[in-house]
TrEMBL record:
PANTHER family, per the entry: T CELL RECEPTOR ALPHA VARIABLE 39, T CELL RECEPTOR ALPHA VARIABLE 41
Quaternary data: Alpha-beta TR is a heterodimer composed of an alpha and beta chain; disulfide-linked. The alpha-beta TR is associated with the transmembrane signaling CD3 coreceptor proteins to form the TR-CD3 (TcR or TCR). The assembly of alpha-beta TR heterodimers with CD3 occurs in the endoplasmic reticulum where a single alpha-beta TR heterodimer associates with one CD3D-CD3E heterodimer, one CD3G-CD3E heterodimer and one CD247 homodimer forming a stable octameric structure. CD3D-CD3E and CD3G-CD3E heterodimers preferentially associate with TR alpha and TR beta chains, respectively.
Chain ranges of the Ig-like domain: 5-95
Organism: Sarcophilus harrisii
Keywords: Adaptive immunity, Cell membrane, Disulfide bond, Glycoprotein, Immunity, Membrane, Signal, T cell receptor
Pfam families, A to Z: V-set
Record protein name field: Ig-like domain-containing protein
């Protein structure tokens, strides 16, 4: 099986102060029939799925994700960041 999907995330690294609003962008090259997923990897290496998004916007508390399938772009937002939001955020496009 050959995968042509390329995913780019920006910024690659981000340092914020508690209370800051954060935006992380994800662009992909191929249409995603199964949507786009956002994950967090905590300091212990555990990966947790935060969102699977197909269209529009989803919210969970202070977290929000938007997707524009026409432009093949998604953005992940944290409003009023907290210490417990610390981790590595990842996006993944699945076909």
């Amino acid at each position: 099986v050959r995968c042509l999907q390329k995913v780019e995330q920006s910024p690659q690294s981000l340092r914020v102060q508690e209370g800051d609003n954060i935006a992380i962008n994800c662009s992909y090259t191929e249409n995603t029939s199964n949507g786009l997923q956002w994950f967090i990897q905590d300091s212990r290496g555990r990966i947790t799925s935060l969102f699977i998004v197909h269209l529009g916007m989803q919210e969970k508390g202070r977290l929000r994700v938007l997707i524009n399938t026409k432009d093949k772009h998604s953005s992940f937002h944290i409003i009023n960041s907290k210490t417990e939001d610390s981790g590595t955020y990842l996006c993944a496009a699945t076909n």
